Structures are given as structure tokens and as C-alpha cells.
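@channel sequence for tomorrow's demo:
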Amino acid sequence: MPVALTIDVVGSRRIADRAAAQRHLDAAIARVTEDVPGVVTPLHPIVGDEMQGVYADLDSALSATLLFQLALPDTVECRFGAGIGEVGVVPSAAGGISDGPGWWAAREAIDAVERLARRDAPSARTRVAASESAPSDARAGVALANAYLLSRDELGAAMSERTRRLTYGRCLGLTQSALADAEGITQSAVSQALASSGASAVVEGFRLLQS
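C-alpha cells (generated this afternoon):
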């Protein structure tokens, strides 16, 4: 069952340099599109501060949202809504308009995570919702996915920009030695950063999504 993914920028009106932020977002899109299989429609900017894409399944979509978060600098933050359901395009003179139960569910999810972040879980950034027409097994897995995402988002929110880069690299299977060389630090510093941030749990979760 396809998964529609909607992404919006948190606090976009407060970003001092919107052009620089867009360059970071475009770079993250390019990296994630290359590094995560299962892309049906690549992530792309649409209106304002919103991006959309479609993945073949929930595991691929959740893998993409994780790497997207890890790829961003401290100055840019996003929230993610993943909608399980059929997706389509409505013809228009201005181009195709995304439509269908998957997109409606993605909007429901992103609205829900925004409300959640304002109240009980300030670090929440990712949410899944399933359309009513989605298979029963897909709908049954939504609560488990959202429980996992709450913990994952909490760990990610506490990471420094460098630790997120290191975690991204470990998700792709890069060695600590290679990451140390890329960052210009010692392997011991890499090991300490990963161990103190809970990155190993994030990386293992990513690997489970890929298996």
C-alpha cells in the first residue's frame, strides 16, 4: 500500500534566511532520494514551505523521514505526516493536483503531530495515519508506528547537528573511522557522541525498517 508523505517547515516565518533554508531542504531531498529505496514519487517542494512525495510502503517512508531529519542543520526543522492509502492526481490547467485517501491521511497525520507537539510531546515531529480504505493490517500497525516515532523523535531532538550527521552516516553503514575522518575528529570522539546520544538505537531502528 503506497504511503503519501507531506513535510512542512516548523516556524518557517521565523527563519531569517529563507533562501538558505531552501537550499538545505533541497540538499536533504536529494540525499534522501538517493539513499532510501522505495520511492514512487520523489520528494519535491510544492506551495510555500511544504514538500510532498510518495513511497511504496511505510517502512520506506519512515526511513526517509528519519534521514531527512538527520540531514538538516539546526536552523531548519520539519514535521512529517505519512498517510497510508491510495494516491492519485487530479488533472488541472495548472498541472496535476495530488489527491486521494493517502494524501488526506497524510494531512491528518501532520495536523495531529503539530497538535501533539504543542501539548504533551514537544519533540514530536513525525506521525502516521491510515485512510479508512487502507487494509486492516496496515491500520492495525499505525499505533505501533506512532509509539516508535515518539521515542525516535525525542532522541533526534536532543542530538547536536554533528551527532545527527554521524547518525546518518551510521545508518548508511559508514564506519566510525570514516566518519571521524570526514568530521576531522578522533574515532573516540565519534564513539562518545554516538553512545551518549542514543544514536545506536536510532540506527538499529533504521536497519529494522530496511530489513
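heads up for whoever presents: The radius of gyration is 17 Å.
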